[in-house]
Amino acid sequence: MISMRATPGAAGVMGAVILLAGCAGLDQANGVSDASNSSALLADVDPIQLTVSSIFPETQVSGQLLRDWMEQVTEMSEGKVTFDFYGDATLHPATEALSALKSGLTQVTFVSTGYWPDQLPVAHWDDLVIQAATADLGFPNVNVAGPPAALAHYLEDSPVSEEFAKHNFVPLLPLFSGPSVLTCSSPFDSADDLSGRTVRVGNQVAQGENESLGMTGVFLPPNDQYEALQRGVIDCAVNAPTTVLAQDLLAVAPYATFEGSAVPSSGSMFAIAKNVWDDLPREVQTMMGEARNVALVNLMKNQLNVYADFVDAIEATGGALADPTTIDNEIRGWHASQPDLATAPPDGIHEADARAHIAMVRDIVDDWKSIITAELSVRPSSGGDVDTLIESWRAGADILDEDAYLAKINEYTSRY
Q1: What domain range is 76 assigned to?
Q2: Which domain CATH number covers 193?
Q3: Which end of the chain is more exposed for a tag (fewer CB within 10 A), N or C?
Q4: Model's pTM, two decimal places?
Q5: What digits encode the pLDDT tens for the residues 177-212?
Q6: How far from 80 is each of 15, 72, 97, 104, 251, CA to CA, in Å?
């Protein structure tokens, strides 16, 4: 059961009622069990209710990911695990997620590491690592291979997981998408037309990419963009198409292009408070891992279908899609100028350890690149002109056998 809240109730503010039987460490939760055994596994587990908060509307792909996971967990537990849910940032704003998890105000919420580069320097650096490793996957492979690769690299013991633990959270549902789209309130045809504009970005890499086009990047939470575009505070915004459609940004910024050379969006996730996670029974952790994998398959399907919808929405609004060639050339040049990530790790991480972490991430991404192309027969689109991109985007989620995809995610995560 998922109880919906518009504003915090007296019992919900300080945390949910959790009656636990047993505990387990983080590494015990990531295997996948047979769903048919859930009832027997949870026979001796007392009822559990978790407080969950989200900044996203349920109609947005990110909101659907969280709802899919909650519904799977409740169904698989036969109602033993339920959720007290606060949507649309009613419990806390996006920028207070870390403090909300630490205080117990919420127990599961949206975290974007780009909001706290000073508090999460290792995660901020790691975002660059996973982005660099997945940058050449191409569409739609980045949307298919990216989420399970991001998940797997979070499940590894690493300086990133240590930093997350210090701030009392564990990644639960990674949000990983690409390519980004640039939407603007006035027309443009090339990189030269964008010079001097102000653009909303979600992380430091997107800032660098778009400032290479002559724009000024500013950081804004996703749900502040519509008003900022409407009032002229910003001229453009960079997002996944899922965010553009969910927030109706084309109504105020109908001129767009695909930033095909931009790296994928990473570092965003739904996370669970570590103290809560560690106290959950092993059976519940295992079941939540299985539910997570099902939810990630739905995320992939929803993302790819929204990319197809985005093309239709541009046409319906009377906007225009600009050819991305000159924009992609500038972004590629910016990436080529960036320093080796291994030579600029965060404080406390030695270069040798940085290189080992980068190698681990690249190995995971290579695994998933092989799984997607060789075993699931998904090939990236070729060419970068707007017509070729439109054709590949319109294909939606029909390019993949979702049952085979889920089986591969289950198999890969079982090693953890």
Answers
A1: 2-116+157-175+267-303
A2: 3.40.190.10
A3: N
A4: 0.83
A5: 878 899 999 999 999 999 999 999 987 888 999 999
A6: 17, 12, 26, 21, 43
The Cα 218–Cα 207 span in angstroms is 7
Residue with tokens 């969910």: 246
Q: Is 12 a residue whose pLDDT tops 80?
A: no
Write the CA distances from 134 to 9, 39, 142, 177, 282, integer angstroms. 42, 39, 7, 11, 32
Q: Are 196 and 184 contacting, i.e. CB atoms less than 8 angstroms apart? A: no
Check whether residue 219 and residue 309 sit in a common domain.
yes
Task: Write down the mean pLDDT value for the chain.
Answer: 88
Contact (CB, 8 A) for 118 and 271: no
Residue written as token pair 């997981």: 161
Please name the residue that has the structure tokens 């995809």. Answer: 405
Pairing outcome for strands 81-86 and 180-184: unpaired
Helix (H) or strand (E) holding 226, with range, is helix 225-230
Contact 269, 174 (CB under 8 A): yes
**CA-based Rg of the chain, rounded to a whole angstrom?**
21
| pLDDT confidence of residue 17 | 36
d(CA 301, CA 402): 8
Indicate the pLDDT class of residue 21, thresholds 50, 70 and 90: very low
Q: Which residues contact 48 (CB under 8 A, 6 or more apart)?
A: 18, 19, 20, 80, 81, 82, 280, 284
Q: Which of 366, 341, 367 is nearest to 355 (CA)?
A: 341
Report angle CA 362, 400, 145 to the nearest 5 degrees: 15
Residue 79 and residue 27 share a domain: yes
